Amino acid sequence: MTARRALVPLVAALALTAGAPAALATTEPSPSASEASPDAGAADPQLLEEAEAALREERARVEAAEVTPAMASDATFSLRADDSTYALRPEDSTTVLEKTQEEKGDTVVTLTSDLLFEFGKASLTPAAEAAVADLAADVPQDATVRVDGYTDSIGTDAKNLGLSKQRADAVADVLAAERPDLTLKVKGHGEADPVAENEVGGEDNPAGRALNRRVEVTYPTA
Question: In order of start, what are the domains of the chain with their CATH numbers?
Answer without folding.
Answer: 2-74 (no CATH), 86-220 (3.30.1330.60)
